[in-house]
Structures are given as structure tokens and as C-alpha cells.
Amino acid sequence: MVFDFSIALLGAGEKDLAQLFVAYWTNFAANGDPHAPGLPDWPAFGAAGNIAQIDTSAAGPNVTVIQNLHAAQCSFWGNVTIPPSAVFG
Questions:
Q1: Which of 5, 28, 76, 89 is 20 to 30 A from 38 in CA distance terms?
Q2: Domain total in the chain
């Protein structure tokens, strides 16, 4: 690359986070599984109410599973029905 502006455009930890996502997506595309040696464990989808929180720190990117984050708000929006005519006219 002739001009590498990634240092100027990314904040602290964002370059590591971007590289982590590239690794996850590459593994998923190649193998159908985002896991690989050296990467934080990516939790399997399926547990109701759980989300994966990805953050960066001096120790590197970390994936944490959080249970029932904003459960009341998610429950509300999960029960809202929007008719197709409201979206598509």
C-alpha cells in the first residue's frame, strides 16, 4: 500500500479489533467456524438473551458473553408488530 492511513484513522485498540474481525470472518468463510488458535473464543449462537461483547484493552481484544443485557427493552421490541404496509407502503 502506498499510503497507509490506518494509523491516523483508527483509535487505540481499533486496529487490533479490526484485525480480530478479519481473522474471524476469514476463518468462518474458509471453515464455517470463526474459531482458530490464538483468537478469543467466539460463543455459539443460540442461548436466548446472551450477547457477545467485544472490547479492546492493553492485553488485546477480548470476547465476553453477557446474559440478558437490557432484557426489558429487548422484550418490548420483540413484541412490537410492524405491518408490512408501514414499511413498504
A1: 5
A2: 1
